[in-house]
């Protein structure tokens, strides 16, 4: 096994045991980037020299003082919405040409303090405003979409071109690409991880979180990045995150949606997710059927919040240089300028009602288990999908449909791989819990993962 094939947990253990040096690990991952990224397009930029210097520094520090923690000397990537002092933050957009960050984002500071090694910045759908990341190819099938908007981060992790990465999630932008590329994606509770120094899409919906190979890896990254930051007005001091447990799930109640989440879902996805839920039952969990509250309002609330907030942020640059935006993003931004204040306020009110209704739902369950996305990765350039009932839906609308509720309500949501379809494409299951019960979704995810045969598997990228 090559070092780039190791999960974060495995690599950290090897570094701690002095069986692997940060320099060897970083060189292996940089070599992997060189071998596969020309085909995948996960990275906007790779800072190889800086990564080598940081890994050598980490090696010296570990040799003299021991590791600071599990991320010390571990190579990682950041979605190119996340500021690193002295580096461009392009948001994968011509609008940001020449932009260089003047200071680190809070998460970059936290990862730097943990001793992580930055490899570079990964592609996003322009300004995170989309669900496909067209610059990047799916790690399992290069003719298919990576998912978005954190597609570059998900593909880098899936291909072994980063040991872990950070993404952002406003309507599913961590969980969608994680599911489509067969990796783990965690959207933490709203406010648990600071967004300061992160280019916003929609400030009342934006989250920052990890993409990793395993659930335990995600727990390690969350523990390093969570914490109050006065620069982010939404930042909160949540309970200690800790590391995920595992083992049996006796005494835990898993909600199985009787509405919404299995509507208009491909047979392969439904079969794999229901089988995974059955596995949770075998591990001791009690399955409880639940109705998803206010399901008919989810799409309207998501768009009613996100679209006007995004347009407000881009107001000046859209008017100054509209031609620099990609057509799909420009249309959405222009549409947001037509949203009335009344519509926005109604969406805010409905979100408050939805949060209350979801909190009542979680009175009866500990975790909600559901599909992460309704179908596997679409063909690049495919605009719509037709469901068995004759409904025609835009691909992006399809992908956001099952992930948006956790952004609206702010609850933690974890996506992990639970199978593949007949074409070999990954399928993801989503676990959600009451706000600040991030440790609960990690515990359940790890229990499932430990019982799975091929956890942490890399995508079979041909070199």
Automatic annotation (TrEMBL):
Domain Amidase, chain residue ranges per copy: 24-442
PANTHER family per record: AMIDASE AMID-RELATED (PTHR11895:SF176), TRANSAMIDASE (PTHR11895)
Region called Disordered, residue ranges: 229-249
Xref: InterPro entries: Amidase, Amidase_CS, Amidase_dom, AS_sf
SUPFAM superfamilies: Amidase signature (AS) enzymes
Protein name as annotated: Amidase
